[in-house]
């Protein structure tokens, strides 16, 4: 898994986004081999449908229990992938890569403030 992370970072730094996505996919396949409880039938269905509908790569994120999946698709396949994921009951949360490092936000009664 660690090697996949290094390879993904290398591809991102080189600007090889499609190679990054392929490595993301390889990482997901490797992660699934670790344990039978890494994924579920629902997660597998979402992942497989995403791949059939434009995602070049993806994986589940976090330590479990919460539930986020990351997918990469070329721009021309983005809407098709979004429609597919929405039909499967997924909530889309846009993100972008940040050159300044991770930024988090807290929501308070007075509005959103940087962490």
List low-pLDDT spans: none
Counting DSSP E segments of at least 2 residues, the number of strands comes to 4
Shape annotation: globular
The strands making up the biggest β-sheet line up spatially as 1-2
Q: How many alpha or pi helices?
A: 4
What is the first-to-last residue Cα distance?
30 Å
CATH architecture assignment: 2-Layer Sandwich
Overview of the structural elements:
The structure is a single chain. The protein has a single domain, classed as Alpha-Beta Plaits. It is 46% helix and 18% strand. The chain has four helices and four strands, in the order H-H-H-E-E-H-E-E. It has helices at residues 2-14, 17-34, 41-52, 78-87; strands spanning 55-61, 68-73, 105-108, 111-114. It has a two-stranded antiparallel sheet. The model has no long low-confidence stretch (mean pLDDT 86).
In brief:
With 115 residues, the chain is an alpha+beta fold.
Topology:
Layout: H1 2-14, H2 17-34, H3 41-52, E1 55-61, E2 68-73, H4 78-87, E3 105-108, E4 111-114
Helix pairs in contact: 1-2
Key words describing this protein structure:
single chain, 115 residues, alpha+beta, Alpha-Beta Plaits, two-stranded antiparallel sheet, two-stranded antiparallel ribbon, 4 strands, 46% helix, globular
């Amino acid at each position: 898994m660690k090697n996949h992370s290094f390879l993904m970072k290398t591809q991102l730094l080189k600007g090889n986004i499609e190679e990054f996505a392929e490595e993301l996919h390889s990482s997901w396949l490797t992660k699934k081999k670790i344990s039978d409880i890494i994924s579920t039938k629902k997660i597998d269905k979402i992942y497989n449908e995403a791949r059939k509908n434009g995602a070049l790569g993806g994986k589940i994120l976090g330590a479990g229990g919460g539930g986020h999946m990351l997918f990469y698709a070329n721009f021309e396949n983005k809407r098709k992938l979004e429609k597919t994921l929405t039909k499967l009951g997924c909530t889309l949360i846009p993100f972008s890569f940040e050159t300044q490092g991770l930024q988090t936000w807290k929501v308070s009664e007075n509005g959103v403030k940087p962490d």
